Give the backbone structure.
Amino acid sequence: MPLIHVENLRKEFKRQKRKDGFWPLMKSLVYREYEQKVAVEDISFTIDQGEIVGYIGPNGAGKSTTIKMMVGILVPTSGDVRVNGLVPFENRIENARRIGAVFGQKSQLWWDTPVIESLRLTKYMYEIPEDRYQQNMALFGDILGLDEFKHVAVRSLSLGQRMRADLCAALLHDPEIVYLDEPTIGLDVVVKERIREFIREINRERGTTVILTTHDMSDIEKLCSRVMVVDHGRLMYDGNLNTLKNDYGNMETMELDTEEVFMMDDALLRMGISFSRTDDARSQLVYDKKNINSSAVIKWIMDRYSVRDFKVKETEIEEIIRNLYAGFSQDERQRQEVIV
Amino acid sequence: MRYLKLYARFIPIYFKSKTEHGFGFYMDFVGFALTHIVSYTVIWALMSRFQTINGWNMYEVMLLYTLNMLTYAVAAVFFFFQMDAVEEDVHKGSFDSLLVKPINPFIHMIIRSFGHFFLGDIVIAVIMLTFCFNRLDIHPGFGSLVSFVFMLLGAVLVQASFIVITGSMCFWIVRARSVMNIVIFGIRGFADYPISIYSKFLRVILTFIIPYGFVNFYPSHLILNKEGGALFASWLPYATPIIGLLLFFIAYRVWSAGLNRYQGTGS
Amino acid sequence: MRVALYREMTLNAFRSLLAFRAEVLLFLFGQLFRIFVQVYIWYALFGDSGQLASKAGSVTIQEMITYVVISSVISVFATNDVIFRVSSKVSSGEIAMDLIKPMSFRSVIFCQAFGTNLYRMLFELIPLIIVSLLFFHVQLPSPANGLAFLVLVINGLILNFLITYTIGLIAFWYILVWQVNTVLNGLIRLFSGAFIPIWFFSDSLVKFSYFLPFRLIYYEPISVYLGKVTGWQELLAIFIQQLAWMAGFLLLQKWMWSRAVTRLVVQGG
């Protein structure tokens, strides 16, 4: 039985129309216009225990709205959410006991108190047994490197330290599921890596299910076995990362460094290869992996040129997502039949 | 029970981290205290010229002011900065963090901060209360002291209710802080003087609609021998605890309605 | 060209305030509440007698109510925002953005304060006056007194600006400006005559208030409005006192600024 069950989920918001200019402003003093906005439109999926799911999409796509409904903060307009058999918004507090969440830029820890004290208060809030608390603190403190700042007040932490402290707090009570909203945003590479390591470790050791939203594609590549792409409130892709890459990342780029000046050829065009020259010696070839593989391309070239060096690059994940968005808005319906 | 335990853990930590600021921490109290010293001086300057206002002498007016300040300060310790933070959270979208914790958000709201600023007010109020009692030659017996304490508790609930109700407006309107300011720093000011000086209309409002009269005016009749001084009905001086409970119940309902709205139920 | 710059700075402050329109109504209520409280206090203090003896001769209840309304009109403009504006800019370091503007920091702050006051004039003062005229019998001054009042009030407001600006500069040395502000607020509340006219003060308080500039913002102009000050010598005396205090604060502010700037250079890297 899946841990999280989401079916035909929908959420609408009413929003006040804002207008510029003096008179519309005066008018809005007396009379307000509202508009309906659909943040989430008919989303369905299930998540099993132990998965790490990357939930991605552009800003305003409906990511956080979905997550807020999953943790019970928002009540769906229609549709069904079940986490662990519970409806989150009806059993918010019961649900809150079993989940951990880190979101927003503001810390959920006690703002004025030192990190270690704040974590201890979390212990009382979740009624974590002392031995479990000690055990977890030892393990988490080690991976996250909390020691260096544990006596500093939360408000004076750096962004990276704050995120590490918040992550620790969110996982102290051994939640079954953690929701992480942009856990690595604005952090430097070292801290990012540390946080990823922590998430992997928790998932491996405890079997914790992780749902994270991110704009950083390397988070996805390094952590997630499964991605869900959402845009305009609809789920556009749900599956593993490799399939996504295969379906939308079929273009490959070959960088060539040749003795002779590389010349474009009709034969290349016929093979579906496009060409651009960086300078006299270096050129770039772009082709569809499905039509022709890299070895065929390099063989054809080596027959005609002396190749000093070459490099094959897969499409970057950002680009894949971009392709996905572009394709979707171009011909939404057609695409949807293909994917879903 | 669990909440109390959590709170009991939190308070010492809070004070430890606050007192680390040293000088600034104590200056907070001084700043707040100064406002009150000025207010008492104003009353003194006014009353030493005019002797009585509507039959209330200087120390009686000071007593009214003190009761308003004391009960507000006690309520504010637990609610003022807390509700203020809620408004900020709702606007910044960080209010969610209260909703992902396994604690009633109302309780969580109270126990995640502490209004140490107002402790200075309480100290001044207690000193002034003793001073006024002394000057007015009031020596309450045990019985009347107990009932006076109950009155005070009711008055604290009245004060707390207004903070919660006006603060909860942030779930509906954008600039809720202004509403809070108007009520707490505007309307509450009416109760600094005996409400019998106002017009009938205002007296009705301050008794039945926005019952700040129950914070000091009515209960003070129990300890001051003011014959026929109570307005409307002679039992009103005893009503403060009931009014307090009732109002606090309403305040909690308003808060809950706000929470529901935030979560998108109903509307 | 200079004028255009100042005009834009002023308009900008005005525009950003328009966004807070919900506060307009609420502010009006707040002011009215304060007027109501004070008016009723005076009614109660006057009791049945329509007039009371004071240091400025006999005062009628009508005059007292007018006093309360005019005082609250002045208080619309004589605020302490400037203190917080200056101190928050100093403590947040935002002051650097103002220092690279081609005008003095004092002028930047003055423009912003002026823009705010322009807004207040439209959205706070006018409604306040209309409502006050409806509810209370506000006496109107003789044309000569009215004119003198206007001059003295504007002077008083500039003085108020200079006082608050100077105190805001304290932020360069001492961060907890709000306590200083509390002290200032208290002094103003007591000794400016904003609440209790100085003519009802005891002798010792009167003397004390004469050593402070605050009565020049509220009490003296309102006295002129009510015709309690007669003779051009007395008017001139008030006017000269205002100028003297303004000059004093200008000098103090200049001296503080020169010290502050060196601190800024020392602190900043």
